[in-house]
Amino acid sequence: MEYRIGLIHGDGIGPEIVDEAKKVLDAVCEKYGHKFEYTNLLLGGASIDVHGVPLTDETIEEAKKCDAVLMGSIGGDAKTSPWYKLSPDKRPEAGLLKIRKSLGLFANLRPAYLYQELKDACPLKEEIIGEGFDMLIMRELTGGLYFGERSTVEENGIKKATDTLTYSEPEIRRIAIRAFDIARKRKKKVTSVDKANVLDSSRLWRAVVEDVAKDYPDVTLEHMLVDNCAMQIVHNPCQFDVVLTENMFGDILSDEASMVAGSIGMLSSASLNETKFGLYEPSHGSAPDIAGKNIANPIATVLSAAMMLRYSLDLDKEAEAVENAVQKILKDGYRTVDIMSEGCKKVSTSEMGDLLVKALE
């Protein structure tokens, strides 16, 4: 099969980690007889340097022609980079918001998986993590507080700021359907997280999710208030499978879950629209302090590529092969500097990519 893949190398360590993920994707093509046609796209600081803006309309149109897009990290050092002397709408991160909206990417998937080989990095006690956990935070990405109307006014010398949290039934329904569909491929459980004891938007959220659940009798649905969920992630993370929630709650909970997993350098993510198209990227930042040193961990980007194979290209067998290669390399004791521990073998960014290719072969 032939697929068109957009590559956004990004900023900081982005080019290094994307190159290693491409190396692994090429090995997948060689092993399984596929063909990937790559299109290089600019976003973030790299786009500012060339075009003066973090994202051009031409890049958006090229991305729409792809089956999926794999992206490195975006942004730089806010204290020293000239990008951050620009107005907020011209900075690297503004390109991320624009491409998500332009491509209709409403569902953000953030896995938090604890590898047994890395359980010493987990901040939780061993009796809590047991045999490990495997949860998927599904965050609604284009609605809610972050996209509602906002204003700051001054009345009688007192400033007053307002942010509006709005959700419509169709917005909730489409993310709920995606959550239940993905749960069917996993452990068949959805935990819907809201604040229905206080917020009208959450009460609508809960009602719509319950209605969607009627079409998935094989999937267990439970509701959990967001403050309780934040506690449960550190108290008993093993109870979760798919955690479905709105934009702001998902932003907070996914970061919490990533730290419980021990290393954000291992965590992938995906943003999907209503078709098979998705934008795939590591959960970590651009780490400009180590850019160009060949020491960054490419595994999160490689696992993001595996998510791309599974969710956008329907290549489940190939995705599993990449995930198994990561597992094998960790079991064999190879580590980049961020996950290095005593008795293991430290490798560079490019060496980790080579090892993953060899494990695939």
Automatic annotation (TrEMBL):
EC supergroup of this enzyme: oxidoreductase
| Residues annotated to bind substrate | R100, R110, R139, D227
Q: How is the cofactor bound?
A: Binds 1 Mg(2+) or Mn(2+) ion per subunit.
Question: Recorded GO terms, molecular function?
Answer: 3-isopropylmalate dehydrogenase activity; magnesium ion binding; NAD binding
Cellular component terms per the entry's GO annotation: cytosol
Annotated keywords = Amino-acid biosynthesis, Branched-chain amino acid biosynthesis, Cytoplasm, Leucine biosynthesis, Magnesium, Manganese, Metal-binding, NAD, Oxidoreductase
* Pfam family, any one: Iso_dh
GO BP annotation list: L-leucine biosynthetic process
Q: Where is this site: Important for catalysis?
A: Y146, K195
Quick one: which residues bind NAD(+)? G285, S286, A287, P288, D289, I290, A291, G292, K293, N294, I295, A296, N297
Chain positions recorded as Mg(2+) binding sites? D227, D251, D255
- What EC numbers are recorded for this enzyme? 1.1.1.85
Q: Does the keyword Metal-binding apply?
A: yes
What is the annotated localization of this protein?
Cytoplasm
Q: Which reaction does it catalyse?
A: (2R,3S)-3-isopropylmalate + NAD(+) = 4-methyl-2-oxopentanoate + CO2 + NADH
Q: Where is the Isopropylmalate dehydrogenase-like domain?
A: 4-356
Q: Which cofactor does it need?
A: Mn(2+); Mg(2+)
Q: Which family does it belong to?
A: Belongs to the isocitrate and isopropylmalate dehydrogenases family. LeuB type 1 subfamily.
Q: Which HAMAP family match?
A: LeuB_type1 (MF_01033)
Q: Per its database record, what is this protein's job? A: Catalyzes the oxidation of 3-carboxy-2-hydroxy-4-methylpentanoate (3-isopropylmalate) to 3-carboxy-4-methyl-2-oxopentanoate. The product decarboxylates to 4-methyl-2 oxopentanoate.
Subunit notes for this chain?
A: Homodimer.
Protein name (database record): 3-isopropylmalate dehydrogenase
- Native species of this protein? Fusicatenibacter saccharivorans
